C-alpha cells in the first residue's frame, strides 16, 4: 500500500472522490466502536472494488501517545493513476490518517434546534450506507444555514423520505419505540447507529419529511454520531430560522443513555 504526508495531484480520492474514510473517537488511545468502523471501511472498499487495507496497516493508525479524547480520521483512496475515469492497471491504495484532540459539544446533549434542508439526496443504492469520499451533497446542504442557533440540518431524499443529517444519523420515537431511517438507497450508515441496531435498541423504518413536520405520532427526535453522541432536538426550523414544529423533551431518554454508554460519555437522568 502507498502512503504520503501530502496527497499527490493524481490521487483518485482527490480527483474523483474514489475512496472511503472513517472518523473514530479515541479514548485514551483506544478506538471506540472500532469493529463497526473497520467493518464499514471494509464494506466501502468492497463496494468500490478497492483492495482491502491490511489489519496491521489499520492498527498502525492507532499508534501514538494515549491522552484523553481524540478523533482519528482515516482516509483510504484507490491511489494514483488511471486515464480519466478508467482504473489504473495496478492500483496502489493510499492510506492517510491524522489524530487531533477533541471535546464533545456537551451543551448540546440537553437539546438543539435543527433545520430541514431544501437539498434532496440522490438515490443510489450501490453507494448506500458506505462513507465514500464524495460528500458534495452534504457540503451544499451545510451551506444552507448560517445561524449559530441551528446545530444540524436534516436531509430528505428525492422521494421525500428523511435519510440523515449532514454529519449525523436521525432517530425518532413513535408509539413507544425508537426508530432510525432505512438507508437502502442513500445515506451513511453510522457506527453508533449500527451498534444501537445490533443491540435491538432501535428499528429501521421510513419517515416522510411531511410526517416529521405534521404528525404528532413522531414524539421525540434525536440526531447523533459516534463522536458527538446524541443530541435531542427541541425544534425543527427552516434554514432561515422559521419554525416548523417542536418536539417533546428528550434529554435523558434511555436511547441517549444507551448511546452514551457505548461511547463512554455520561448520561443525563431521565426516562426509564
Topology order in helix (H) and strand (E) letters: HEEHHEEEHEEEEHEHEEEH
Radius of gyration: 19 Å
CATH architecture of the largest domain: Alpha-Beta Barrel
Note the total helix count: 7
CATH topology of the largest domain: D-amino Acid Aminotransferase, Chain A, domain 2
Overall 3D form: globular
What is the typical, i.e. mean, pLDDT? 95
Give the beta-strand count.
Answer: 13
Tell me the name of the CATH class of the largest domain.
Alpha Beta
Helix content: 10-25%
Which homologous superfamily in CATH is the superfamily of the largest domain? D-amino Acid Aminotransferase, subunit A, domain 2
Count up the domains. Answer: 2
How is the biggest beta sheet arranged?
9 strands, mixed
- CA-CA gap between termini: 49 Å
Ranges with pLDDT <50 over ≥5 residues?
none
Helical/strand content category: alpha+beta
DSSP strand (E) fraction? 25-35%
Protein name: Aminodeoxychorismate lyase
InterPro entries: Aminodeoxychorismate_lyase_IV (IPR017824), Aminotrans_IV (IPR001544), Aminotransferase-like (IPR036038), BCAT-like_C (IPR043132), BCAT-like_N (IPR043131), Class-IV_PLP-Dep_Aminotrnsfr (IPR050571)
GO molecular function, one term: lyase activity
Pathway: Cofactor biosynthesis; tetrahydrofolate biosynthesis; 4-aminobenzoate from chorismate: step 2/2
Amino acid at each position: 500500500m502507498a502512503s504520503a504526508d501530502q496527497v499527490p495531484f493524481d490521487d483518485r480520492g482527490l480527483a474523483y472522490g474514489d475512496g472511503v474514510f472513517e472518523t473514530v473517537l479515541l479514548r485514551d488511545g483506544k478506538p471506540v466502536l472500532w469493529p463497526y468502523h473497520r467493518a464499514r471501511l471494509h464494506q466501502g472498499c468492497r463496494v468500490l472494488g478497492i483492495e482491502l487495507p491490511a489489519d496491521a496497516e489499520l492498527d498502525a493508525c492507532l499508534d501514538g501517545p494515549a491522552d484523553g479524547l481524540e478523533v482519528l480520521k482515516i482516509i483510504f483512496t484507490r491511489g494514483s493513476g488511471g486515464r480519466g475515469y478508467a482504473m489504473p492497471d495496478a492500483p496502489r491504495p493510499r492510506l492517510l490518517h491524522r489524530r487531533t484532540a477533541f471535546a464533545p459539544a456537551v451543551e448540546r446533549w440537553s437539546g438543539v434546534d435543527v433545520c430541514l434542508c431544501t437539498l434532496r439526496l440522490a438515490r443510489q443504492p450501490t453507494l448506500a450506507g458506505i462513507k465514500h469520499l464524495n460528500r458534495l451533497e452534504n457540503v451544499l446542504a451545510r451551506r444552507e444555514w448560517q445561524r449559530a442557533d441551528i446545530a444540524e440540518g436534516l436531509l430528505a431524499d428525492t422521494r421525500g423520505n428523511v435519510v440523515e443529517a449532514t454529519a449525523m444519523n436521525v432517530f425518532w420515537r413513535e408509539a413507544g419505540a425508537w426508530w432510525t431511517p432505512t438507508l437502502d438507497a442513500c445515506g451513511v450508515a453510522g457506527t453508533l447507529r449500527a451498534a444501537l441496531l445490533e443491540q435491538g435498541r432501535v428499528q429501521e423504518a421510513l419517515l416522510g419529511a411531511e410526517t416529521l413536520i405534521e404528525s404528532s405520532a413522531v414524539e421525540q427526535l434525536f440526531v447523533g454520531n459516534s463522536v458527538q453522541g446524541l443530541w435531542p432536538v427541541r425544534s425543527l426550523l427552516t434554514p432561515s430560522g422559521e419554525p416548523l414544529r417542536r418536539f417533546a423533551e428528550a434529554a435523558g431518554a434511555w436511547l441517549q443513555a444507551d448511546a452514551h454508554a457505548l461511547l463512554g460519555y455520561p448520561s443525563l437522568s431521565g426516562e426509564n
